[in-house]
Amino acid sequence: MITFLRYLSTMAPIVKSYDYLVIGGGSGGLASARRAAEFGIKAAVIEHARWGGTCVNVGCVPKKVMFNTAVHAEMIHDHKDYGFNVTLNKFDWSVIKKSRDDYIKRLNGIYEANLDKSKVDRIVGNASFTSDGCVEVNGQKYSGKHVLIATGGRPIVHKIPGYEFGITSDGFFDLEDLPKKTVVVGAGYIAVELAGILNALGSDVSIMIRYDKTLRTFDSMISSAVTEELEAAGVKVLRQTQTNSVTKDVDGTLTLDTTKGPIRGVDCLLWAIGRVPNVEIGLDKVGVKLDGKGNVQVDAFQNTSAPNIYSLGDVCGRALLTPVAIAAGRRLAHRIFNNENDLKLDYDNIPTVVFSHPPVATIGLTEEEAVKNYGADKIKTYKSSFTPMYHAVTERKTKCHMKMICLLPEEKILGIHMIGMGCDEMMQGFSVAIKMGATKNDFDNTVAIHPTSSEELVTMR
Questions:
Q1: Please, how many CA atoms are within 13 Å of residue 77, restricted to the half-sphere of its CB?
Q2: What's the pLDDT at 88?
């Protein structure tokens, strides 16, 4: 008997098999697994951290809570102009942090419950491919007739001396109090959003950028306007500046040695210089290739270079947006398990929002891209700049800028770019029209809703 038990202990573990094995419990992976389960297949999701991935835990969702908090702070300054005698006693960071964290925990539980309702198995741990094509988690091997890689990405830091004294966007959500003095390094949307939030809530904020403007990959109008609004709100924009080293002083604050001189007394250094894909899962063992930037290489149908292995979301490095991953994941499930062989996500004309102050909304080509693709003589732009009616009676002002880019001669709309109060909410409806191929004439033939900012898009001349 003892000999038999010893024999059993030396046997290779039994491989657990699934029709669909998903690596990554973020938005894309969860959506794909649950949709696949609707077609009667056996599915499982592997996740080593909290369910919901970056978006739910350290991304869009908690960020939007903090954006909303910052909007309250901004509007408090306007109350007196609307006749309300309101005195701000203080802002308690710990209150919103607890409420926000409790909300995220509830969402984590909802994701778990939804997987259970869909009869999708939950596997907790770090996944790694093995040379025999299986996926190993905590010593247990799993196989999938179809395997999806949806492992997302993570923020990077500038590895200079003392870089470890800073935090990333992940660490932002661990802050126990509002920093008195903050330096945000980066010019992308994460840097802009977090700088705006901290500034509105009362931190002394500087944003350090390598060039002259933030959001340089956006339309030039947006890039200029966002940078101007940051400065108008009180954020110090440190142009053409980079950090050489960071030291921690005896009082616990940081000193940044920069190309423009030292910055002393910094309570929070926040790195927001980019993200990299999570690809350290043994992809070479199964023949999954990466592109030149280290992202998983996929075709239009989310196929990788390995048969029956797919990938989507941030790990692929294209359109790093939660709804994109969800849409691609659901379409993939339909294609694989419901015989919808031609179904794939169209990556053109994807709307997106930056929760700056005020927010940015954009869809389609920038003016620069349109001119490059079609030639300047084929492009006509329409623009509008105004002060939203909300600010008609307020001392504090923000501007609204809109641009419509059209292809001649039909004036098919190639792109819309906006910054201003309410632009984040108005873009979704307009994006449907753009996706359907709307022209400037279609917009002209639509009666305006007055008085709104959105009516500008149907009255441009």
A1: 14
A2: 84
- Contact assessment for residue 382 and residue 368, using Cβ atoms and an 8 Å cutoff: no
87 pLDDT band, cuts 50/70/90, is confident
Predicted confidence (pLDDT) per residue in 392-426, tens digit: 999 999 999 999 999 999 999 999 999 999 999 99
Q: What is the pLDDT of residues 130-146, one digit of tens each?
A: 999 999 999 999 999 99
**pTM exceeding the 0.85 threshold for the entire prediction:** yes
> How distant, in Å, are the alpha carbons of 425, 453, 455 from that of 419?
11, 11, 14
Q: How far are the Cα atoms of 54, 274, 313, 342 from residue 298, in angstroms, in the given order? A: 21, 21, 11, 16
Closest by Cα among 224, 233, 239 to 417: 224
Q: Which residue has the tokens 């809530």?
A: 201
Q: At what angle do helices 367-374 and 220-232 cross, to 10 degrees?
A: 170
259-273 per-position pLDDT tens digit: 999 999 999 999 999
Please identify every residue annotated as catalytic.
Answer: 450
**250-285: buried (b, 16+ CB within 10 Å) or exposed (e) per residue?**
eeebbbbebeeeebeebbbbbbbbebebbbebebee
| Secondary structure of the chain as H, E, C letters | CHHHHHHHHHCCCCCEEEEEEEECCEHHHHHHHHHHHCCCCCEEEEECCCCEHHHHHHCHHHHHHHHHHHHHHHHHCCHHHHCCCCCCCCCCHHHHHHHHHHHHHHHHHHHHHHHHHCCCEEEECCEEECCCCCEEECCEEEEEEEEEECCCEEECCCCCCCHHHCECHHHHCCCCCCCCEEEEECCCHHHHHHHHHHHHHCCEEEEECCCCCCCCCCCHHHHHHHHHHHHHCCCEEECCCCEEEEEECCCCCEEEEECCEEEEEECEEEECCCEEECCCCCHHHCCCCECCCCCECCCCCCECCCCCEEECHHHHCCCCCHHHHHHHHHHHHHHHHCCCCCCCCCCCCCCEEECCCCCEEEEECCHHHHHHHHCHHHEEEEEEEECCHHHHHCCCCCCEEEEEEEECCCCEEEEEEEECCCHHHHHHHHHHHHHCCCEHHHHHCCCCCCCCCHHHHHCCC
User: Which are the contacts of 90, defined by CB distance < 8 A and separation ≥ 6?
Assistant: none
Do residues 412 and 448 make contact, with C-beta atoms less than 8 angstroms apart?
no
Q: Report the candidate in 352, 381, 379, 349 with the shortest Cα–Cα distance to residue 364.
A: 349
